[in-house]
Design goal:
Length: 131
């Protein structure tokens, strides 16, 4: 949960309205100075979404996506649809690349934010449906 005041949530809403409808890459010099153990390699933002790209240790990349708005209890708004997630994937430059969303075993669940994660393999997957 993100600790915010009502005024900060309202400001975020105003800031979001200034953003474009489609995701644009955020230059590194505009990233917030937060301490993160695994820093993203790219960040995108739109009026509706944030997306961050990470390199994973196994050759995969992870695209983490959340809505750009907070609910009343300080969590990112929930409810990213499949169509929205596909559009985010396209807007981040992965339109022609397979991506996987993982539903982990119960013992491995980490649910700290309303985020979706797409894992992008280093090679096309061999079990996908193809036209």
């Amino acid at each position: 949960m993100i600790q915010t005041t009502r005024q900060q949530r309202r400001q975020l809403k105003r800031d979001n309205q200034k953003q474009p409808s489609k995701l644009i890459e955020v230059p590194k010099e505009l990233w917030p100075n937060t301490i993160v153990t695994n820093k993203p390699i790219k960040v995108w933002r739109s009026k509706f979404f944030f997306a961050q790209l990470y390199n994973e240790s196994n050759g995969y990349q992870r695209l983490s996506v959340c809505k750009s708005s907070l609910n009343d209890v300080g969590r990112w708004d929930d409810g990213i649809t499949w169509d929205e997630l596909m559009q985010v994937k396209r807007e981040c430059g992965f339109a022609d690349i397979d991506a996987l969303e993982i539903f982990p075993a119960d013992k491995d669940i980490v649910n700290v934010a309303n985020m979706r994660h797409l894992f992008i393999p280093p090679e096309p997957i061999n079990f996908a449906w193809r036209k």
